Structure formats: structure tokens, C-alpha cells
From TrEMBL:
<dbReference type="InterPro" id="IPR002563">
    <property type="entry name" value="Flavin_Rdtase-like_dom"/>
</dbReference>
<dbReference type="Pfam" id="PF01613">
    <property type="entry name" value="Flavin_Reduct"/>
</dbReference>
<dbReference type="InterPro" id="IPR012349">
    <property type="entry name" value="Split_barrel_FMN-bd"/>
</dbReference>
<feature type="domain" description="Flavin reductase like">
    <location>
        <begin position="9"/>
        <end position="161"/>
    </location>
</feature>
<keyword id="KW-0560">Oxidoreductase</keyword>
<dbReference type="InterPro" id="IPR050268">
    <property type="entry name" value="NADH-dep_flavin_reductase"/>
</dbReference>
<comment type="similarity">
    <text>Belongs to the non-flavoprotein flavin reductase family.</text>
</comment>
<protein>
    <submittedName>
        <fullName>Flavin reductase family protein</fullName>
    </submittedName>
</protein>
Length: 165
């Protein structure tokens, strides 16, 4: 019996969301936003309101998330497929992709909230290194959104729209 966890887990459909955060640049005091598409996002607790996401420990956005301790999560629909794919690149590619989005700083964290069917603003509650990932636990400070288009999921390595039953 062989163990191919990656191949097996690709058959499990997951939602796709964009996690955004930012940092103030030392020189000039300018803000630099960053974002990454993730499918490892889940609700952990309703009381207190907690969510989790897992990022590879070598992810270049992870140090920023840990340093700022704030982020926003925008849950994507079919209109976000191109964005999710563009956010797989390096920091410059992600910045270009993010600059094409309709977004505004969240009122409680300042992290960009995208025009999406659902969004959350979070602050770092805890984090744990486990395996080759860091699991971030976020306390949810605010939520919102509205459904307009079918949701999108990742399954077998592809982003697919869910049609309504």
C-alpha cells in the first residue's frame, strides 16, 4: 500500500478564499498589501468566533501575517477564479493581481476586503507549526458579504464553479 496524501486530498473539494494582509514599509511609510489564495480555511469555533488557515512554512506571506497579526479573508465565487490563479505567483505577481481587484481596507484590521460573496476580518489568536505548515488561528472580528454568483471550489487541481441544485 502506497501513501500519496497529496493525490488523495486533491479529490476532496474545498472552497477557495483570498487572505490579505499588509505591512508598512520602513522608508516612506507606504503600505504594501499582500495576498494569497488558500483552500485550507475552516471555521473552528462559534464561541469564541475562531477560524483557521494553514500556510506552508516557507510561504513568503507568513512572516507578514505573523508580524501584523491581522488579516482579511474573502471567500471567492466564480468571478475570482483568475485572481486565485494569479495569486499563486511570487510577491510581485501577487501585488499586480491584487491591484486589479475591487477592494477596501477593512474597518477593524485595515487588511483589504475584496468584493466577494463572503468576507471576515481576523486578528491572530494563536499559531502552531505542524509538519511543513503553520496553522494560524484567527479570532473573527467582523463578517459580511452577499451572494451573487455560484461559489468556486478546488478539486483534482482545478477550480470549478458549483451550479445550484
Amino acid at each position: 500500500m502506497s501513501l500519496d496524501l497529496s493525490a488523495t486530498m486533491r479529490t476532496f473539494a474545498t472552497g477557495i478564499c483570498v487572505v490579505t494582509t499588509f505591512e508598512e514599509e520602513q522608508q516612506g511609510g507606504r503600505r504594501r498589501d499582500d495576498a494569497v489564495a488558500v483552500s485550507s480555511f475552516v471555521s473552528v469555533s462559534l464561541q469564541p468566533p475562531l477560524v483557521s488557515l494553514a500556510l506552508r512554512r516557507d510561504s513568503d506571506i507568513l512572516p507578514t501575517l505573523l508580524a501584523t497579526g491581522v488579516w482579511a479573508v474573502s471567500i471567492l465565487d466564480v468571478a475570482g477564479v483568475d485572481l486565485a490563479e494569479a495569486l499563486d505567483g511570487d510577491r510581485q505577481e501577487r501585488a499586480r493581481a491584487l491591484s486589479t481587484c475591487t477592494a477596501s481596507p477593512g474597518p477593524l484590521t485595515g487588511a483589504l476586503v475584496l468584493d466577494a460573496p463572503g468576507w471576515l476580518e481576523c486578528t491572530l489568536h494563536d499559531h502552531h507549526d505542524t509538519g511543513d505548515h503553520t496553522v494560524l488561528i484567527g479570532e473573527v472580528l467582523a463578517t459580511g458579504g452577499r451572494r451573487r454568483r455560484p461559489p468556486v471550489v478546488r478539486v483534482n487541481g482545478a477550480l470549478l464553479a458549483l451550479s445550484e441544485a
